[in-house]
From TrEMBL:
It comes from the Eukaryota. SMART domains: KISc. This is Kinesin motor domain-containing protein. It comes from Durusdinium trenchii. It is found in: Cytoplasm, Cytoskeleton.
Length: 631
């Protein structure tokens, strides 16, 4: 995992160069729109020919990436798959303060492909390259920003409710960072559950409890319907985990159930934090026990507390930090269980390893939701489109993706099983860079593929911790392994490269867009007022734009460099009168001053980029050293 300092540099880069990254997002969206338009030409053109216009209009990788999301749609059948474990995502709109800060949307959705695109803007460590990683995460359902709570209920909660009314056990989990609308979505879904459940049953028993920290620094469950009395989490004879001692409220109509839900949530722990005025400081679990003909059904709604990073907890008190630590620990154990199950299903481990469900009371309670193939579960990941939350969004999507890929019981057809066996065999026999574990299992360089024959060189065996100057290694246990060599500084490779962009594919698909055109535009804009670079046509256009009182006899072949060498006397000789010469001289002086300002801004921009590439965030954002550049 990248250090907190590097994450701060990444967020600072997105703020400093938001114009460039916003252009990258527009390029992808325009490419996707163009791909949808060109799709209709497939019936009239040979295979692959309709893609050619897209590849000429946009960056090659972006064009291919958008084409696969809008035309190929490999994940289009996700909703039709028969599975008891589904993963969905809902993106909230930009908040008012984010719009006022001129933040752009760093997330895009592909409804037809049921996937989320994360646009991760970065400054390379060389201090000169600025690029965007477009990462696609395929899920089972993606809700657009304008989706309402009833739509979320219809897709995510109603199948679980119907399954519970038939005597089954089902769980709905809301997962994501703090401030992304988990509790808002959960409350909206519960309102619709309250309206629909009594259409098929006469009585509902409800209990509600939260998992929070105690004064001794331990996890415990508290009954929200009994003044937060402490209850126990135990394993029953049926093998499922139950909360014992919680008060159950019987409800005969929607009004009683709604009143009980309101009473329970009023007791939930919440505090004002840097990210949220009423941030939930506990995991809330609400259970509806439904009476059925054969046996009682169960619908469990889990509203998890949001994860927080160090920079978001600077103003926390000691008790808040302690409770936040317990929240992050329980979420970490949930992610760890998902990672271990993912590695087991994908064959990354030759021996079956223990899944640490008992490491936390939360994972102990939710164990059957991930291991019982007769238990219906839906995970709704809530996301923030703000570029300051890109790391949160990537983390959320990576872990719900692991949860989704760990559902082994959906692999029933022979073709899928054969593909799985081939993937397992390939993972076991791969060596070097091919042995990288992850959802994509692909580590690649933009300009060289790290020749396998060079892996035995001693230089490739040198490894330092994350943040090393040349070579670095991530912990293999976190499904990320990287051995990095910069060929420009290692003569043993005997290769010459102009760029060096290593990408670790942790998503279902990625595309790296180097924003070289933006750098060229910035350089061209910084030289727009430089008289030395003006050709004859530019000079004549400049003269026509001036409101001169008299005639100017400047030859049509004269360039800006020649004009500047004339001096005041030579300039006056080309003008019809003194007034005209004074106006022209003042205009040229204004251009020189504008050139100095543009050059200083461009120099400041390059200095900030170099500082961010070297992870010197304070130097990059220090207003006393660098003035705000106009981009």
């Amino acid at each position: 995992m990248a250090s907190n300092h590097k994450l701060v540099c990444a967020r600072a880069a997105r703020q400093q160069f938001r114009g460039a990254f916003q252009q990258a997002v527009r390029d992808y969206r325009l490419a996707k729109l163009s791909a949808s338009t060109l799709k209709g030409l497939d019936a009239f053109l040979p295979d692959g020919l309709s893609f050619l216009p897209l590849s000429y209009l946009y960056d090659g990788e972006v064009a291919r990436f958008a084409w696969e999301g809008a035309v190929t749609k490999e994940n289009r059948d996700a909703c039709d798959r028969q599975t008891n474990f589904r993963v969905m995502a809902r993106t909230r709109p930009l908040q008012e303060q984010e719009v006022d800060s001129k933040l752009y949307e760093s997330l895009s959705s592909e409804g037809g492909n049921h996937s989320i695109i994360v646009h991760d803007g970065r400054v390379h460590r060389d201090g000169r390259t600025i690029y965007t990683n477009h990462s696609r995460f395929c899920l089972d359902r993606v809700f657009p920003q304008d989706a309402s709570n009833p739509q979320v209920f219809e897709e995510a909660a109603e199948p679980l409710l119907n399954f519970a009314l038939q005597g089954g056990r089902s769980t709905l989990i809301f997962f994501g960072q703090t401030g992304t609308g988990k509790t808002y979505t959960a409350r909206g879904v519960l309102d619709d559950v309250t309206k629909k459940v009594f259409l098929q049953t006469a009585e509902v028993e409800m209990c509600c409890y939260e998992m929070a920290g105690t004064r001794g620094g331990r996890e415990a469950f508290f009954d929200l319907l009994a003044d937060r009395a402490q209850v126990k989490c135990l394993t029953g004879e049926d093998g499922n985990v139950h909360v014992r001692g919680a008060r159950r409220v019987k409800c005969q109509n929607a009004g009683e159930l709604h009143q009980a839900i309101e009473a329970a949530f009023s007791w939930r722990s919440s505090e004002c934090t840097e990210r949220n005025e009423a941030s939930s400081r506990s995991h809330c679990i609400l259970e509806l026990h439904l009476a059925c003909e054969d046996e009682n059904g169960l619908l469990r709604v889990v509203d998890l507390a949001g994860s927080e990073r160090n920079f978001e907890t600077q103003m926390h008190s000691k008790s808040m930090a302690e409770r936040g630590g317990l929240i992050n620990y329980s979420l970490l154990m949930l992610k760890e269980c998902a990672r271990v199950m993912h590695n087991q299903v994908k064959g990354a481990r030759e021996k079956e390893i223990h899944v640490p469900f008992r490491s936390s009371r939360l994972t102990h309670l939710l164990r059957s939701s991930f291991t019982d193939k007769y238990h219906m579960t839906t995970v709704v990941a809530t996301l923030s489109p703000s570029p300051t939350d890109v790391e949160h969004s990537l983390n959320t999507l990576q872990h719900v993706g692991m949860m989704r890929s760990a559902r082994a019981w959906e692999m029933q057809d022979t073709e899928a099983m054969a593909a799985m066996e081939d993937a397992i065999s390939e993972a076991k026999t791969a060596k070097g860079f091919d042995a990288v574990q992850g959802r994509g299992r692909a580590l690649h360089s933009k300009l060289q593929d790290a020749r396998k024959g060079q892996l035995d060189l001693h230089a490739f065996q040198m490894k330092t911790q994350v943040g090393g100057s040349i070579i670095k290694k991530y912990e293999g246990e976190s499904a990320k392994l990287e051995t990095f060599i910069d060929a420009r500084w290692h003569r043993e490779l005997k290769v010459k490269v102009q760029e060096d962009l290593w990408v670790l594919r942790d998503a279902d698909m990625e595309a790296t867009q180097v924003l070289s055109d933006w750098r060229k535009e910035q350089w061209t804009a910084s030289k727009a007022h430089d008289l030395h670079r003006w050709d004859a046509q530019t000079l004549q256009s400049f003269l026509k734009s001036l409101d001169l009182p008299g005639e100017v006899r400047i030859p049509s072949t004269m360039t800006g460099s020649q004009l500047r060498r004339l001096g005041p006397r030579g300039l006056a000789a080309l003008c019809g009168d003194v007034a005209t010469a004074q106006v022209l001289q003042a205009a040229l002086l204004g251009e020189r001053q504008a050139d100095q300002v543009a050059t200083a801004a461009h120099r400041s921009q390059n200095a900030r980029m170099t500082a961010l590439g070297n992870h010197k965030v304070h130097a990059a954002v220090d207003e006393a050293v660098f003035e705000e550049a106009p981009f």
